[in-house]
Amino acid sequence: LEVFRNWKEALYAKFSPLPPGTTRIIFRLLFPEADTRRRYHMQETGLSLEIMKCFGVNDARLTNWSKDGHSGCLGQEVKNVLEDTLSDSDGWVCNLSLQDVDELLDELASLSPWSHSSLDTRHSHQRKRRSRQEILKSLYRPLAPLDAAVVTQIILKDLDGLLYPIDSEQSTTEALKSYNSLSLYKLNKEDAMKVWDPENRMLKTYSVRNSLDDASTAFESGTWLHTPKVGSFLGMPKSCKARSPSNALKILGSSDLVYAETKYDGERAQIHVELVDGTDPRLTIFSKSQRDSTLDRIALHPIIIRCLGLNSSKTKFKKNIILDAEMVAFDGLHIDEYWRIHGLIQATASGIRRKHEQKSSCYNLRVNSAERYRNSSNTKHLGLVFFDVMYMDGSSLLSVPYWKRRILLEDLITPDPGTVLLSARWALNLDEYMTQTSESQKRYIKDPVLTSLCNVFVERTILHFEEGLILKAACSSYNDPRSPWVKLKRDYIPGFGDTIDLVLLGVGWDKERGEKLGGTVESFVFLLKLSHEKSGAFLPHFHIYCTSTYVDTNGDARESLETLNFTLKSDGLIPFEPANMKLPYTFSICHTLPLPTALLAEPLVIEVLGDRFTKTSEHEPYQPRHPRILKWFRPSDRSWRESVKREDLDDLVANVLGLDYINDDNEDEWANRLWGKPGSS
Q1: pTM assigned to the model
Q2: In what order do the strands lie in the sheet with 486-489?
Q3: Which of 251-260, 399-408, 641-650 is predicted least confidently?
Q4: Which segments constitute the ATP-dependent DNA ligase family profile domain (predicted)?
């Protein structure tokens, strides 16, 4: 933090007054992960190839950036390569200004369909749009090696790998043992805003609007912009995780009345509606990631219009409104499984997420799941569960107590079973027990509030198969740091999650987890599949279908990962080379997964903890949601043949999710194609 403060003072001393827009550019570049306008549609693999083309080099360091002996950071490898390639790199002078770099990044982002539409509009007037490679040459070639490294990580939206590097000279085991996350202070945008703007205009604006651009405008214009803006993303509350029902109540112990709301298994939808005379209602829908998903979720538009009475005279607001909801999949009148949402979006979206066909597995099998959802006789469809209102008719409701916002919400929304719901909730009165019962009495008198919460939790998660509960203090404001929302789920409570024995077959690299723990290996989790005949002999076949980056066997994730890494390397890893691998088994890989860097010569049985079960697509097996590795067993202790079989997995999932059966109409067809056998057509 002191480094940033000194840099700011030096910048002002040398260049004051700063040109208009400088604050916006600096914060966009310093915190690229918070720059939601720009998406570059490139990760390390693609960007490294583009950079090699840009400079006319072919250096293995740029493609092997994540392997042992390398930095684990593509930007650092770019710096190393350019320092070795360019003459007089120490005395390099860059002729690009901050504004030049910002504009080139805008132009680069305009090529991605995931970027904000304003970027595409801004550059569409050009007579001939430049290619990605042409833009990258204009951006990279004037840069010194260190500057090029920084720009690389900005495009990857991750400066941490460069600012807080892993020691590439250490082995994975040494790095994990010596790494101490507390020894570093990572600059965050909130603290940077406090340093940049001591009057806190930036911070207060950002806490509401969640926009670096709006926060920068507030600072440079000297105005206060700390009220919501229709059409701009509003910062969402972050929930605390409760480790037990009693822990949940302890977090909210200062509140007299708490409501336990059902946590619905869907995707967040922040809905903005603006009424303009003579035109249709203007709808904007943001996802939890702050992306404008209005076109993706176009199937929700008529639902929103109906439930707010916008197609009649029943609407209860006059100008505009911002609502919080969960987008869920319905099957008739009942909420369906979370994974169904993906297919419904593909079937109904307008724009980049609409798809007609989807490849499945490595057998080039095409799955017409989107077509199935488009069938008019299908009972599955998207819907909404509303749970809050934050803004109405030009007035912010952020400081209004939750109980009042809920009353207003119930007056605004017209429920429609099977399409629109209001979140279910139960009142828990803490006042009587927390304030009128003495500490000595609490030892002998059973807590009625805790009992009530436990009963609700068991009923909703065990008997009704729901995801969990969100606890909210009745008098709390929206996004209240003193009374946060508290999330209670089964997998948060030790011993209450869903565990399953799977097969660990390979390893790979996960950038974010590697940077957090200081290690360089990700663990891949695999489901054991049935054997099939190949070359006259029976070989076991595995289907690689999910991954886990979390290993925690003793309460210390870093030590657990270090121990697993050591075990895997000691037993031998076979580099992943699809054309030249001699393995005692065959395998297939789900098309949505990255390829592993190495496979195990002998598979290991692992115990995996998850938050219930889900799928990546209709034709993939069920997998643990948010999987974490709890145990692993050496082959001498347990054979991989003792892991779960597909048919046993289906029975387990049916019990956990409350399904009468695993609903896969094409189960036999899928199995035949997976094993390369003729279909039933």
Answers
A1: 0.84
A2: 240-241, 486-489, 468-473, 257-263, 425-429
A3: 641-650
A4: 375-518
